[in-house]
């Protein structure tokens, strides 16, 4: 029965299968109404089930609360519930008929920059909550900075608690002007603004009856239509080799395929490519996906490439377009977010992971540290501790093949690992 | 610029295949845990796709509580035989016989927790450095914060407050001797995604997931299947109903749903309109607010 291959239905034949995936990160604290917004999205889209709701109600009452505390839904760990704080990134899921959403819910406090960066690293969109009464504050700037640093393709600014400012258009417009100025300086991508009341549900799933002056989409309407198709790089063909597939079976005696996930551009059968390092030229003979043969592959597909010539390729190699090639260098400038309580060591050696490649590196320079609140560059202060962001240079033992992070988030990102503890200590974005 | 998109199932599939290949590349001796439930079945089919036309380069392992639905074991053995995959079976009963685990007592007794002992012993004995599981973040709140690559210390324990950062698609499987990893390739899938994917890929499923007649009884509002090793409390009455399983686990704590759903399309409709989570019927989660977190810290899946 296992090998019976019934007619495969495509997504198009089953309408409700044909949804896009959008990953977004929410940064903010309980005070901004972040949990209320998420709770409302989950509840209104029926992603909170009755048994979960009952559990939250039970827990809220046992903690002496009067209202149902939706934060209890996202704070999953015992310590979080006991201390009433959010410690780590929590992933939440909901779907509308048009899209499936993955929320990386991160705590917004300064000490949790590392969590915000983690959540932002895979996000298509950043949702930034602003309390309409407070306007753009230090925390807002910090969130906008991280969204820009991590090059999140879309930013959705929710001006929340509009009910507490009498749904006044001027308040919304003033905040919009302030944030637009911040975003211009930081270089945020594709910024959208929404006036909402998460608590009352205005402009979240349903259109607000209190803000006739607002003619834009609701939050969910916007999230359903943000154009995510262009979020990957389709220009620069990059294929980091993860694993070499050699069945060595009678049926596939000579099969040799390079398994990996397209990290940029489009690969086609017959395309001229080179394998790095080495730079041997060859062409793509076939693109395999399970038992299917594809004509082209693009990010973020996981496929297997077969090449016309037998060349020396292993994990860590990168198959790239013959003409459009990445930068190859041993000396790399990057922005780093430090993730560990043990500070960054100048001249310190770390293990560096970049695409499927890994090697040792040494930190050769700390150019400056960013004051994450004022966004000033501190050239004198080069001690980089937990949750701090800096511009540094590293030298690797072998060349890596990269594109600037601005151009490609996959081939422009790296992590640093402490060899003594094996912990991930730094998140790097190559300049 | 020429744009291309894939639908949400293809994107989840691509992510899971990437993670499974990372495991094969980064670990010396990985194993994929197989329970016979839909999540581990989907995970295994993803693994087949990841390495085709080569065979899956690691064995499957079933931690058998002995309290199974018969259909699960038939499906398991059939799957291993037809796909030529090595299936390791480790028995909780053997751990009990060796005195490594003690059977719970009372009417709510379950071997669910005891699986941890058998699992950790098997990992140590067979020197596995990574065990993949079909856990999903949407299943339970403690799982919502789990990494794809989840580090375990030499005692197999999970330290939820001190997890390693996981950014982009850069997975760090570095560890010291004696430590191991749990990896969850389908972390980002929901119950709905799993069923839609099964439909899209025409993955054969155990008959338990479809409606059938079975002798059941109702305990604390949850329907459970009767079995020789289950004791009925006074007032509980066994009766035959048309049911299907939403999850498949140890028979003693797996609630079944009254259902007429007989096709994948009908199951998807049922999941779409359901107002209770699939784990709503899992007695093992109801023991306390942090039941899952506590079990996971000890080394449970």
Which short descriptors sum up this protein?
heterodimer, A: 431 residues, alpha+beta, Rossmann fold, Elongation Factor Tu (Ef-tu), domain 3, six-stranded antiparallel barrel, 8 helices, 22 strands, globular, B: 301 residues, alpha/beta, 2 domains, four-stranded antiparallel β-barrel, 10 strands
Write the layout of secondary structure elements.
The complex is a heterodimer of chains A (431) and B (301).
Chain A: E1 20-28, H1 34-44, H2 50-62, H3 71-74, H4 78-83, E2 90-95, E3 99-107, H5 113-120, E4 125-131, H6 138-149, E5 154-160, H7 169-186, E6 191-195, H8 219-225, E7 238-245, E8 257-261, E9 266-268, E10 272-276, E11 280-289, E12 292-294, E13 296-298, E14 302-307, E15 318-321, E16 327-338, E17 349-354, E18 357-370, E19 377-378, E20 389-402, E21 413-417, E22 424-430
Parallel strand pairs in A: 1-3, 1-4, 4-5, 5-6
Antiparallel strand pairs in A: 2-3, 7-8, 7-15, 8-14, 9-13, 10-11, 10-15, 11-12, 11-14, 16-20, 16-22, 17-18, 17-21, 18-19, 18-20, 21-22
Helix pairs in contact in A: 6-7
Chain B: H1 8-26, E1 30-33, H2 38-51, E2 60-64, H3 70-83, E3 87-91, H4 92-97, H5 115-125, E4 130-132, E5 149-152, E6 180-183, H6 191-201, E7 212-219, E8 222-225, E9 239-245, E10 255-258, H7 264-273, H8 291-298
Parallel strand pairs in B: 1-2, 1-4, 2-3, 4-6
Antiparallel strand pairs in B: 5-6, 7-8, 7-9, 8-10, 9-10
